[in-house]
Write a sequence for this structure.
């Protein structure tokens, strides 16, 4: 855990939504280790749920091993630990698909938050998201790896065209569909009273960032339950997962 006098406590909820038959999202909350993950799987024949669950389990195992059994004489490098864990998950999911052709092409998004001595490290692949809520304002800390977001950043389309695009869900990076993936790493500070929301696109697709502080204000399990209910009420076209990490 971080070397400052705060406690991080998490709450989570997931739901299949109103249109899907299977929940291909997976999540992890390990308050003791200081690690939280949300993954949104993709792939036919239940491969999506295999990919997301395997990725989460691999990241947990790799981070746990690195933090609890550090090499003698080596200072722990939290960004490197988290990136290596995501790469291990990528290789594992890819290898499973190579062994079982029915799962060929399976992959998953992955958004992870790891406590470090300087605050927190975030790892991002895909279009799940991590927001930080501070002073009644929500800030998206991660970047969506989607075709539409790339087009938007290149100035090829407007924000209005991006919202209406039929290509909104085309992922440009995923864990597991290749042997290697480029991982975004973000280091950020942590302050007393902060809340971090990790969520799949089944939630943030229905939620404007300006609304987030109001919906997480109750805190605790009620907050994530309210978010899942909101996504279902607004359509629930995808699996919905929310993990709320509170700094107290």
């Amino acid at each position: 855990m971080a070397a400052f006098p705060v406690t991080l406590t998490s709450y989570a909820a997931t739901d299949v939504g109103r249109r899907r038959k299977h929940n291909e999202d997976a999540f992890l909350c390990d308050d003791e280790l200081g690690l939280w993950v949300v993954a949104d799987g993709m792939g036919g024949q239940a491969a999506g749920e295999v990919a997301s669950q395997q990725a989460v389990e691999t990241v947990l195992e790799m981070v746990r091993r690195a933090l609890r059994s550090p090499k003698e004489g080596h200072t722990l490098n939290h960004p490197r630990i988290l990136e290596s864990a995501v790469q291990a998950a990528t290789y594992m999911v890819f290898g499973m698909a190579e062994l079982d052709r029915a799962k060929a092409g399976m992959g998953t998004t992955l958004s992870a938050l790891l406590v470090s001595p300087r605050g927190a490290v975030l790892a991002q692949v895909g279009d799940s998201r991590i927001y930080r809520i501070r002073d009644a304002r929500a800030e998206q800390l991660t970047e969506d790896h989607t075709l539409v977001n790339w087009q938007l950043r290149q100035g090829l389309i407007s924000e209005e065209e991006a919202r209406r695009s039929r290509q909104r869900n085309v992922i440009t990076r995923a864990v597991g569909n290749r042997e290697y993936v480029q991982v975004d790493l973000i280091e950020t500070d942590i302050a007393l009273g902060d809340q971090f929301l990790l969520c799949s696109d089944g939630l943030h697709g229905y939620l404007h960032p300006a609304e987030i502080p109001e919906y997480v204000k109750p805190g605790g399990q009620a907050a994530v339950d309210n978010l899942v209910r909101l996504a279902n009420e607004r359509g629930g076209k995808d699996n919905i997962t929310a993990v709320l990490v509170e700094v107290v």
